[in-house]
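Bench notes, afternoon.
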Amino acid sequence: MTMAMRIAWRRYWRLLFVLAFGVRLTAAFMLDGFRSPETFEYENLARSMLAGKGFVYKHLDVVYYSFAAPLYSWMCAAVYAAGGTVGTVLLLQMMLSASQAVLVARMAEELFQTTRAGMVAGFLVAVHPGLIVYASSKLHPLTVDAVVFSLALWLFWRLNATPSWTRAVVAGLVVGIGALTRSTVVVFLPIGALWSLWTHGRERWLTLVSRWVVAGLCAAMVIMPWSVRNTLIHGKFVWMLTTDSEVFWRGNNPAATGHSYVNGYSIELDTLTPNKRHDLLHQRNELTQAHWFLAEAIDFIRSNPTTFVRLTIMKFYRFWWFSSQSGLLYRHNWLVAYRAFYVLVLVLGALGIWSLVRQRDVRALAQVALLVLFLLALSALQSLYYVEVRHRWAVEPLLLVLAGGSGAWLSHRWQPERETAR
């Protein structure tokens, strides 16, 4: 790769960042994000820490000490302690989201070995409606989740290509940090390790296993302090949070619809009978409430195994498409625009994969295999709980990597000479 090519690439990466950040900044003003962003429990947790009360949040008439993964609330609290405001947090989100456009562009370049793929993929991230809205108008960890998922895949590709100790440590640390905002990211480690062994001959297995073990240990070192804190507070091992049982129940109960709403604006909790609601609200603490939710969900599954299977399949389908509740909290024209965008992404992604299949690029197809495994694993895990469109947005940038391949497909259709991206 010549110096001129390097300079050209760096220039378009900068342009991508400026475009993505500019779109998000414009959206923040249009949606009044700086003055009245939508806040969630993470903001309350941050304020609670700053008030000296600790990482606590009152939910269902009980004080929770392990309500959510802590990273995003820590970030907000650090910004506020340093004199920042909610607007500062939004700016950080927008910069992080804009950086993802560059990361996805680089991933598409690596996968398809052409800058055109990077340009298409990066542009799609820059104008992705869901990523824009969440980065610009909501104090929510989805932006961080999306970046972590993409970065983990990128680091796993690099570790597999050159299994150095440094890359193993970095990959493990990123997964560990990511688990502090979205715990499902840890499933990437065993999938990545098995995939890595599959892509190499047995003579390299010992080296690869040692690197993946180090990656796992590094991830565990990052997560361990939070797990120890939870265990000391509750007197029982709590890995990350105590609300996972409630989330599992939302997707598996007699009134379950596959998402968090049952009709209009009524949520799953609104369907509880007076007796069950009384029983839930009179549990002693968050652990007993978690046990209550888990017992209710398991009882439902045992009594309705066919319904459980049907619901899970339906939720998996809705993860990758839409449900009747999609867009419920947004303007209808927003949903129409996003549907068109998503269909375009699927078409472009199919073209990208087709370009690799035609070239019979074993290296690239192996990388696609890991990407697809990540997507399937995360969507399958989410389908055991409940599904909203935003859950797909966290991993949709990985689809955009594939969609960027349409640029590669067009390159080979109209310009056969392959452009090397190394």
